[in-house]
């Protein structure tokens, strides 16, 4: 399997009046990459394209050598197990508890585990962060930062070879920045890699490549 994400002649509508236009871009996913950008640059849409969460309206994106729109179902599932996108605002299913939200991911990716094994896996994964008391709550009962951290945890649970993080440190207090840094360090220590998109002027020790993302946003 290839280790690159290749974008060619892509056009993707963000709204009825604006769209992303990327002629050519190749990203080496064997690096830990920081994508630095400006606010309102279309970063979230760009990262969703990189992860295969959405498909471009025009052009082609090859993720690890495959176009997810045309590959076999088996290959699609294989690739989706190796790449995970974490939403900027920690999107959760509102009528489920946090534990049930996390289980949705494991139910899809770890069908060989029993229910009890999946629950134990989640508790073991977060045991050092002192946040397990939130698992029985619903998203509406949590603050912004707590939902954001659990959204990132959900993306980390499947141990993806590539983790794509959308503004993960934005508006986080010190406690939650510490949890997030630990999650990233654990992820990289396992031999995995990350792409981190940020509009904040920050530097990160775990990053070994920086891409200054100039907005590809075009107006109609």
Q: Care to describe what's here?
A:
The chain has helices at residues 43-51, 73-80, 98-109, 115-126, 144-156, 174-189; strands at 4-13, 18-28, 33-36, 58-63, 83-86, 162-166, 193-198, 209-212, 217-219. The mean pLDDT is 91. The strands form 2 sheets. The chain has a 5-stranded parallel β-sheet, with helices on both faces. A 4-stranded antiparallel β-sheet has the order 4-1-2-9, covered by helices on one side. The chain has a single domain, classed as Rossmann fold (3-Layer(aba) Sandwich). The protein has 220 residues and is α/β, with parallel strands linked by helices. Helix 3 packs across helix 4, helix 3 packs parallel to helix 5 and helix 5 runs parallel beside helix 6 (174-189). The N and C termini lie far apart (38 Å). It contains 6 helices and 9 strands. The radius of gyration is 17 Å and the shape is globular.
Defining key terms:
single chain; 220 residues; alpha/beta; Rossmann fold; 5-stranded parallel beta sheet; 4-stranded antiparallel beta sheet; 6 helices; 32% helix
